[in-house]
Amino acid sequence: MAWRLLWVLSCHQGMVRGAVFSAVGTRYGDLNQDRGFVFDEMVGSEPGAYLLAGVFDGHGLLGDHAAQLAVDTVVAWFQEDGIRRRVHETLCQRTDAALREQQVQLILREVIQQTHERILASYDTPPHSAFYGPSGHFHFDEARHQYVSASEPDDKRPLEFGTTAILAFYDIANNTLYTAQLGDSLAALGGSAAETDPDGAKGTISARMLSLPHAHSARNKTERERVMQERNPVRLALHAIRVGPHVLRITRALGHKHLSIEPEFLVVHPQKNEQVLVLGSDGVFDIIGVEDAVRFCVEFDDPAQAAEELVIQATELARVEAEDSVDNTTAVVIFLD
Ligand SMILES: *[C@@H]1O[C@H](CO)[C@@H](O)[C@H](O)[C@H]1NC(C)=O
Ligand SMILES: *[C@@H]1O[C@H](CO)[C@@H](O)[C@H](O)[C@H]1NC(C)=O
Ligand SMILES: CC(=O)N[C@H]1CO[C@H](CO)[C@@H](O)[C@@H]1O
């Protein structure tokens, strides 16, 4: 099995803890276009403390570059002094919750816009060489603004890439969880009733999706109609869209010059029996259902171990079910209690 650990990162913040684990699938050779991160600001339940996490699943020849730029941009943005102050003021103000929620969503919208622009700007200075799994190495031809295969000079690829995004922002003191979704990377929230209710049947799991699995899918009729109405070179295909030579199952993405970056937002207030938040690329949620993912994670005390085991579980199931065609698979696991 050609899965491989790419990175583990974990952070501790009072009782809220998160970690990310990612594995390369077998389908695209030794290349992982998924990225994930967990970032926190301040400790414990100090006013203004929050946890931010995300998963990005890149596509195209430079999909990994797009996903990495997304992580770097989002993390750097939230570390800027001006943004830190603004987030702090937003979370600490005693105004009504609706206004605060609106302001946090505005912040998320801005970081998405910023990240999109940063990835688009990178089209002007693409890396000189790129590795694209089984298709091998490519070199950038500046004159023609395209990539040419190092081993097959006739294999030319245009510059076209992007990434899905699922961002989760948890305002700890106000127990408010925000998600922003672009594409088919998803978030799930749930937990075990036994943790809070001694009479609750052990093994009773509650779980809900915090994103819409088909909101940005080329199978979604409303989305197909929206895509057709936009003035862009996107064409519809069976259960997919076609942008130049590329066939995509998703209709929105970050950093893709022809796709919408209008995210789906959701705001929830986690209940006592909802202790686990899972963010995953489609490598996770195409294979493991929401309830099973939550059931699996509550068995662990350490989010890093939960994320790793969940990814291993998903890749092993995929290997059996999809005859060794295993996608890049990334999970962020956050324990909220
Ligand atoms: C949200 O949390 C902040 C920081 O602890 C607090 O000052 C504020 O009153 C809370 N807002 C509400 C509506 O509870
Ligand atoms: C289809 O897409 C629209 C627009 O993105 C969304 O509001 C709707 O919920 C989606 N339908 C399903 C079944 O996900
Ligand atoms: C390298 C790799 O496996 N990339 C794939 C990750 O998953 C997305 C979609 O699920 C593909 O578009 C990437 O090519």
From TrEMBL:
Task: Kindly provide the name given to this protein in its UniProt entry.
Answer: Protein kinase and PP2C-like domain-containing protein
Signal peptide interval: 1-18
Q: Which UniProt keywords apply?
A: Kinase, Signal, Transferase
* Gene Ontology terms, MF aspect: kinase activity; protein serine/threonine phosphatase activity
Which domain of life does the UniProt lineage start with?
Answer: Eukaryota
Q: Which Pfam families match?
A: PP2C (PF00481)
Q: Provide the PPM-type phosphatase domain boundaries.
A: 17-336
